[in-house]
TrEMBL record:
MF terms (GO), sorted A to Z: DNA binding; DNA-binding transcription factor activity
Taxonomic source organism: Cupriavidus basilensis
TM region positions: none
Keywords: DNA-binding, Repressor, Transcription, Transcription regulation
Protein name: MerR family transcriptional regulator
Sequence ranges assigned to domain HTH merR-type in this UniProt record: 1-68
Superkingdom of origin organism: Bacteria
Entries under Pfam families matching the protein: MerR_1 (PF13411)
Length: 136
């Protein structure tokens, strides 16, 4: 199968497919003259790569998983990477929730200052903490 057919079936650009090949994610590709000829399982491999990328995996993370010579990924290793990615995602969600709470508190403080008219008075002489308003 030629690169255009894989691109059509997977939605990946020919440039991306050539890049996957250059990284070793698709294994050996035979040639017919100057054309690359891909095995039928390349469609599934490219689809898996694109799905993994959409889920936040970098191509470098896929290299140890994609046993291109076998035509099948190392499913056990892939499960480990999925679990690791989920753990990282949960940590990031926790960090973002804390950040959201802090921003909510700061926003409430600023609104309270504006409600008391203190923010305009304090503008000429800002407090040590630039996000705080003077307390009465």
């Amino acid at each position: 199968m030629f690169i255009g057919e894989i691109a059509r079936r997977t939605g990946a650009s020919p440039k991306a497919i050539r890049h996957y090949e250059s990284l070793g994610l698709l294994g050996q590709v035979t040639r017919a003259g100057s054309y690359r000829v891909y095995a039928d399982d390349a469609v599934r491999q490219v689809g898996l790569i694109r799905q993994a990328q959409a889920l936040g995996f970098r191509l470098a993370e896929l290299l140890p998983v994609m046993d291109a010579g076998a035509g099948e990924p190392d499913w056990h290793r892939l499960v480990q990477q999925v679990d690791s990615k989920r753990a990282s995602l949960r940590e990031e969600i926790h960090r973002l929730r804390k950040l959201d709470a802090e921003l909510g508190e700061i926003g409430a403080e600023i609104r309270a200052c504006l409600g008391r008219g203190e923010a305009r008075e304090a503008a000429s002489d800002p407090p040590h903490d630039a996000m705080a308003c003077p307390r009465p």
